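In response to reviewer comment 3 from the previous cycle, which asked for concrete evidence that the modeling workflow produces usable outputs, we include below a single protein chain processed end to end. The sequence was submitted unchanged, and the resulting structure tokens are shown without manual editing.
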Amino acid sequence: MQKKSARSIRDNEPLTSQYVRKVVLSLFTKNHDYAGCTAEDLVPELDHFGIATRKDFRLLMKRHRRALLIDEHQKMRRAETLGLRDEFRPEGIDVHRNTSRFAISGLVREALEKEFGWDAVLEAAEKRDGP
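The workflow returned the following structure tokens.
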């Protein structure tokens, strides 16, 4: 019988909120950690889509990293940028480039949307929040 590597053993461990933060911050800049996200609410959402292990989550985020960065760097109209800055926390808004940064939870939810589609993510959110 072949011995399992330590990496393989860790990859099959259940997903935790600390690991979600660790992976997202390792793949994206630390500027995405502005909303004080603990990622506690993300683990059940990910589990709903069958992403229950560390490896599943890491591969999901790596697979959609480039697309998430492209979405994030889309320019907005100046009025839209200023409106977002006034309505939400200004840490995620770059008023000089007219772009916004996703928070950790936004990056994870966008990756889920790219993987499973908008309708599936919306349906899961409705089930989670109730009618």
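The longest strand covers residues 93-94. We consider this sufficient to address the reviewer's concern, and the full set will be provided in the supplementary archive.
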